[in-house]
Structures are given as structure tokens and as C-alpha cells.
Specification:
single chain; 517 residues; mainly alpha; 2 domains; two-stranded antiparallel ribbon
Length: 517
Amino acid sequence: MRRWMQLGVLGLFGLLFALNPLAEKLVLPPDLFLKADPLLSLSAFCASWRFHESLLYGLPVLLMALLAGRFFCGWLCPLGTLFDLCAGKSKVGRLLCSPQWKLRLLVLLAAAALLGSNLAGLIDPLAFLTRMFTFIAYPLVMLITATGIELLRPLADYLRLLTLSHAQVAQPVFSLILLTVMLCAILFTLNHRFPRFWCRSCCPLGALLGIVARIGFFRRRVATSCTSCMQCASACPTGAICEEPRQYRPKECIYCTACTTVCPVQAISFGYAPAPAPLPDRERRGLLASAAAGAFAAFSIKKDVLAKSNPNRLIRPPGALPEPEFQGACVRCGQCMKICPTNTLQPCLFESGIGGIWSPRLDTRLAGCDQTCALCGTVCPTGAIRELQLEEKKHAKIGTAAIDAGRCLVWAQDRLCLICDEQCPYDAIVFRWKDGTRKPFVIDTRCNGCGFCEQVCPVQGRSAIEVWQHGEIRLSQGSYSEKAQELKLDLKENAGDDAFIMQGEPSEKLPDGVITK
């Protein structure tokens, strides 16, 4: 029964992940598992002090731990299911698989969150699994689908199946896919060598549920018929059973029932039982050291250690909270990157400092931000990206395009090029006479930073027109349309013609800051 429930929950996780583009039409939210993760919601709340509905989703999981310990870990966690399916038959290593490591990690994450740095998403099991699906499974499935369509296309042409004959599948590409593959390979290799290695040694969510499990009511019971053969201790994947079979650690038990299966006299069962005598805990120094490490990590993040030299090129998704709140709320799950139809959302490495690893950024050289899409906010589990209507999203200015005169074909080589102007959806790029020739300029009040101009620029390598943070609008609350009106932005869709392309010598002063070099 347990294995069937595990497979069913894993299937539900995969189904919600696959259907996240239909977020507004689904009965269950596609980020259900992420919202129900109490570690993610609590860390986001502590780091940003911003209430979100995910705090309510996590309450049933905490209540489950209060009543039945780490039942979630053994029966409902989809990452735990994958580990069980890939586990080998080796025994658990005592030194490498110490259960104290995950408690220290939890303390480190808690200390960092209380000081404003949310690092929980880097190691949380559900956020990690979502990233694994986003950066590995999703591109692989799309590649297989595209290959299958290409193989079937000749047959479709012969049978006049026009839908299949003309079908196209966009291949998503993510910048940190190799790093993700390496981390997954290491983790699953360790799990094969030491079953449930992650759950026993690394999982901070398991540590959080284990703390609550200490006061649970549904426990492991050992009858007087026990012969102390210790087969149960050998079979336990998390090391919950001690040197004596009647002694065990409730915070480590995941209720996998492996001990009941191997017991030769059927002396083990699960039900209501009083709390076992507490075992000696000598980890006070380790926990204090972990808290100090969390404080140091938060301090390092605040000082932008390892941040790249061009922070003004860090473009966040439309509707992203102001940067300190955004980094506090974002759990680096990758849902927004998976749902992005143009694949412009990419994971950060050190573009926003060490604390921003895996957080989303726009790579406008790769693709622009689709102005008919506002899906990224609908799948964000913690509200780091606000859910906006299309009109609001249009006015959520993410930056301003700027022309590099030293690289632009028109400015540097006096060649005719209109590509960026033709692609601009708001007619923000105009041509005006300067020094006897027509030159392109950006009107910053008409640009919302969508990045299509940068994507299509024909200059090889770095684009001659780039989107910078200048003029971005990021609000914790309130209307973007009203803010844009206050700033006198004029974001009107391009009607298809350019009334300014042959405009005479302008009498007004040219906009400031539209040329970077």
C-alpha cells in the first residue's frame, strides 16, 4: 500500500508540473507541493516578513507531523519516492550519514532567514526536485518529442496529416543544466550507495518535521516478544532504531514499516504509544556553530560577495518584488522558468551575488518577454513574483533599452539597419537626423524593457542594444498602471508604421541615457 501511495503522489507531482501552463484552469494549483512545504513558506516569511497564502498550505503538513511524525517523508514526499526506487542494498554509513547534519543545516537556514537571507530553496527537497524536473526532465522530454515529430514528418506528409506535418516543438535551454545534472548524479549515486542518504543526513524539511515529531502520538511499538535480533535496525534506512530495538528516535522514523517486514516474530507495530525516553544530545556546540555560519552567510549575502560587476544588467521578471524582498521570498524552485513561453527566464549563478543562485533573471539576448503572457506570477509559490493581469504586467517596467553607439551598425558604420525598430512592440525606438544621417534613439518613456530589440540585433556576440535596470518599476503592492501613469510612461502598442523614421531635426532635447557608450 505504501509503495502505491508513493507512486500516486509522485505521479500527481509530475502531472501538476506538466500542466503548469494551465495554472488558471486547474482545480489544484500547479505549485501545490511547493506551497505545502512548511520549510519554504516559513523561511520566505522570516526572510521577507511578508505573509503569503503558502503559510496556510503548510499547516496540514505540520499537523500531520504532530500526529504521526515524519509520515510525509516516508509516504508522500516525491523525492523520497525517487530515492526508494533508485536505492541500492548497501548499509547506511554511520559517519557520512549522521542525522545531526540535517539539523545543523536547518539551524543554519533559520539563522540566515531571520537575518533576511532565504537560502532554504537551495536545499529543500521539493524545490530541488522541481528544479531537477525543470532543467533536466522537461528539456529531455521536449527533445524526445521534437525528435519523434521529425521522424514521423515524412509519414505525416504522405498521409496528408497537416497538423502533424507542420507541428513544431520549441526546445527549452537552461544555462545551469550541467550543474544540475552533476548535483543530481552525485546525490543519486550517494543514495544508491547509502539508501535514503538525503533523508537521513541532508534534508532540512525532514529535520523540521522531526522536531515536531518528538511530540507526536502515533509511534513505533515493540512487544515483549521481541528477541533483540536487531534485524529491524539493519533494515531501517534512516537509522531511527538504536542499539536496543525498543529504543528509537521518533524524529528519524519515516514510518516506512521496513522494520515490521523483517521482524521474525512480528513484534513491531505502529499505533498510539507514549513518547520514548529522550536520548542524550551532545550537539549543542554544533548547533551554535551552525547558527553562527547562518549569520555569516546572511552577512556575506548582504555584502554581495561574488556578485558580478554589472548588477544593472540583472533583469528580474515583470512583477518581481523589490530586490531585497524578492531574494527573501524566492525559493529558487524554477517554476517560472519552466512556464516561460520564450525561455528568456534563466537561473542566476552569481549575477545577483551568492544569495541569488538559481533565482530567475531575463536573458534578453536569448529571447524577449512575451507581452501577451503573465504566467510566471501564477506559479510562484511564495509571491516573489506578483500575479498580474496583462495590462498591469505591461506597465511593470523591468528596465530600459540602451544603444551602444560603438557597436551599433548605424552609429558605428553608417549602415542601414531597422531591425530593432521593427521588433519594438511599443515604438520606443525612433530614427532622427543627427550629423546629417539618421540615427536610432530610444525613448525611455515608451520602453518597458521587454528585450525583443536585444534578441534580434544582428551584431554578433553582445548586442548593440541592451536592456538595463534603469527605470525599472518593482512594487510590493499597489497598481503598476497607476505608477506608470505617475511616471508618464506612454506604452502604446506599435500600430505598424513609424511616424518618426524620417522625422526632421528635433527641437526638443534628446532623451538622456539612451546611449551607453
